[in-house]
Amino acid sequence: MADKEFKLSKPITVHSPEGATDISTLALREPTADDVGKLKPPIQIVTYPDGGVETIINFARVLQYAQRLSSYDAGVLGMMAPRDLLEIANWLGPLFAPLGSGSEAEKN
């Protein structure tokens, strides 16, 4: 996983002492072990005895990751479109996939 820049589906207005600015991209740095330790996983993968698999996304926690990995606070990032938050969750997802599963395991 590397740093990632997301093209937002709709701009977000950022207010500062210099005035308001619209941003259309959001840059996130790669998460560290410290980030994961402080925030806990935003995604839970549940495997059932019948072989079924379910992915549970904690969107409040995804938003916390976005805040921590960017230079923006909750007031700004809370204005993101839900689909943009889902894109961030999809980017974070492989970090929390069980070992030996998914495309990350295939690369090793």
**Beta-strand content bin:** 25-35%
What number of structural domains do the residues give?
1
Average pLDDT value?
88
- Tell me the radius of gyration: 16 Å
**Poorly predicted ranges:** 102-108
Q: Biggest sheet, in brief? A: 2 strands, antiparallel
Order of helices and strands: EEHEEHHHH
- Tell the overall outline: elongated
Number of strands: 4
Summarize the structure in words.
α2 crosses α4 (82-92). This protein has 108 residues and is of the alpha+beta class. Helices cover 36% and strands 31% of the residues. It has one domain (4-97). The model is unreliable at 102-108 (pLDDT under 50). Strands 1-2 form a two-stranded antiparallel ribbon. The protein is elongated, with a radius of gyration of 16 Å. β3 and β4 form a beta hairpin.
